[in-house]
Write a structure and sequence with these properties.
This protein has one domain: MFS general substrate transporter like domains (Growth Hormone, Chain: A, Up-down Bundle), CATH 1.20.1250.20. Helices cover 77% and strands 0% of the residues.
């Protein structure tokens, strides 16, 4: 009886802390999205090429990869609260170092360094929030886990879209450096509020956690991470640099129009992710309620049709505005569904005591895909305009689909650390 009451109390405490960490993640997401648009449009306005603009975000992605790898181990060893606070503090520093810098310092190398810190900040806060879901969902309740992950992921991307619009609008209204200082102040206020209200470690730290455990020995996690690399490369290879520059140079859209369109797309993308559990179900699990490996596979094959169709439409001379807008909307819907299924599967494949490390490893792969997509977005746009970016996107999606064929066709129910039961073997 006493143990049951204690468990209930612990779960309520975890829920309270989870609400706080999610709120902090939302604020950091807004700041991250706004910073991305501020940097992109500011340097485009200065006359830099697409390749140079893409290079501004290389350190962001590289340090995101490193941080996801190390951060998972730090979270397992010291608790998610530590990584959350570190992420917020790093974001304050990243935006303040640009906002307070002399104007002569606002050159590509300096801003690349600030973006490196932003990449660290995003990785730490994202991993903390995604891992914390495991603390509030009852052990073995895969349906609830699917819904919680979908809502968290969807809300994050919706707010990232708001951040895109916010950044474009702030650049027009307040200017580059003032906008950065406003963002720094907002994240600092969030850090102070959350740190004063949160209690405990947000999960149980494991002083025996070893860094070598960051590299997953679970086949399903490794396959999913590989598919994730190609999935996110398929989006960012045309979305990060190619599309915004195309909207500006070819279609003649303004900063606010371009930022607003990208914001609406990402917001819609987030909404789709949040409602995915109502429409995307698996067929191999008990009751057919949760997705499995085949779900990710067929979604990826469907997704590959759309960047190819957009490229064909542009080459055929179909109205480019209609082709881009309609094509991007449909691409976003299918991509969001695929991404939401991935986000559920990584937690479904992870035992509670290994969730932070598996999530860190998984998002390291995620950042690797974004890095490849970001670099290629600038290079391919310079070489063959948006059409080249879209054909590369198609190839990446097909690769993700082929890799997903190796995912388990039955979603396992991992044993928690206190059950003493061995994890069931994966059925491929």
């Amino acid at each position: 009886m006493a143990s049951a009451v204690r468990a209930t109390t612990d779960r309520r405490g975890d829920l309270r802390n989870y609400i706080l960490v999610t709120a902090a993640y939302w604020v950091e997401t807004l700041a991250d999205g706004a910073t991305r648009m501020l940097v992109l449009f500011y340097f485009y306005e200065l006359g830099y090429s697409a390749i140079t603009i893409a290079s501004l975000f290389i350190f962001y992605e590289i340090f995101g990869i490193i941080t996801n790898l190390v951060g998972g181990w730090l979270a397992a060893r010291f608790g998610l609260r530590t990584t959350l606070y570190a992420g917020l503090a790093t974001q304050v520093f990243a935006t303040a170092m640009v906002g307070l810098a002399p104007e002569a310092w606002l050159v590509v190398p300096y801003v690349m360094v600030s973006q490196a810190f932003s990449g660290i900040a995003k990785a730490l806060t994202k991993m903390s929030s995604k891992s914390a879901v495991k603390l509030v969902v009852p052990e073995g309740d895969q349906g609830s886990l699917y819904r919680w992950v979908a809502v968290l992921t969807g809300s994050k991307n919706a707010l990232k879209g708001v951040g895109f619009f916010l950044g474009a609008a702030m650049l027009t209204v307040a200017g580059f450096q003032t906008s950065m200082l406003i963002l720094a102040g907002s994240v600092l206020a969030t850090l102070l509020i959350v740190s004063s209200l949160m209690h405990g470690h947000l999960g149980k730290p494991d002083a025996k956690a070893k860094f070598k455990h960051m590299f997953s020995n679970t086949r399903a996690v490794n396959v999913l991470a590989a598919a994730r690399i190609f999935l996110f490369a398929s989006r960012d290879v045309w979305f990060v640099v190619g599309l915004p520059v195309y909207l500006e140079t070819v279609l003649g859209w303004s900063f606010i129009a371009s930022g607003g369109f990208l914001a609406i797309w990402v917001i819609g993308y987030g909404i789709v992710q949040a409602v995915v559990p109502r429409f995307i179900h698996g067929r191999g699990t008990e009751g057919g309620a949760e997705p499995e490996g085949r779900t990710a596979t067929w979604l990826a094959f469907v997704l590959a049709v759309f960047p190819a169709a957009i490229a064909i439409g542009l080459v055929a001379g179909i109205d480019p505005t209609a082709t881009i807008v309609v094509g991007l909307i449909v691409f976003g819907i299918v991509f969001a569904a695929n991404s939401a299924v991935h986000s559920y599967l990584i937690l479904a494949y992870s035992e509670n005591d290994k969730a932070t490390m598996n999530v860190g490893f998984y998002y390291m792969a995620n950042a690797g895909g974004r890095l490849a997509g970001t670099v290629l977005s600038g290079l391919l746009y310079e070489w063959g305009s948006l059409e080249a970016c879209l054909w590369a996107s198609t190839a990446f999606v097909v690769a993700a689909a082929l890799i997903s064929l190796m995912l388990p066709n039955k979603t396992p129910t991992p044993a928690g650390p206190t059950t003493g039961k061995a994890k069931e073997p994966l059925t491929v």
